[in-house]
Amino acid sequence: MQRAIALSALILLAGWAQAEIPAAFQGADLKLGERLMVEHKCNQCHAQKWGRDGLDIYRPKGRINSSSALMTMVEACNTDLGLGLFPEDVAAIAAVLNREHYHFSK
Ligand code: HEC
């Protein structure tokens, strides 16, 4: 019985901790996203046009204003550049960008 209570408390806490993360990014593989961004040199290319090692391109106050717009943008880069990323790769990258730059909660 006590175990059940402890368990439900844990589940509640876990739900609460994730509340700030958009549904599309829950369970995303952040380590995979980080690796893919290095592998595909996302920031190197952005850095040629934008300052700060390419990080200035990520503009949370720009035209990308939601997690789904962010997913669409990463998907567009994927298609344009012919990267051949799977949907879960795109979600993982978008989740990393969201954690570090955009901070959308939905
Ligand atoms: C060959 C160059 C190049 C590479 C490689 C590249 N991008 Fe981009 N990216 C661009 C350009 C150019 C823009 C600006 C497009 C615009 O503003 O219309 C852009 C814009 C973006 C934006 C929108 C930023 C904002 O807030 O407006 C995101 C997000 C993004 N790229 C993600 C990625 C990711 C993730 C990767 C790696 C998988 C990647 N890009 C690889 C050239 C590149």
UniProtKB/TrEMBL annotation:
Signal peptide region: 1-19
Domain of life according to the entry? Bacteria
Which keywords belong to this entry? Signal
Q: Which SUPFAM superfamilies match?
A: Cytochrome c
Q: InterPro entries from the entry?
A: Cyt_c-like_dom_sf
Q: Is this entry keyworded Signal?
A: yes
Q: What is this protein called?
A: Cytochrome c
| Annotated organism of origin | Ottowia pentelensis
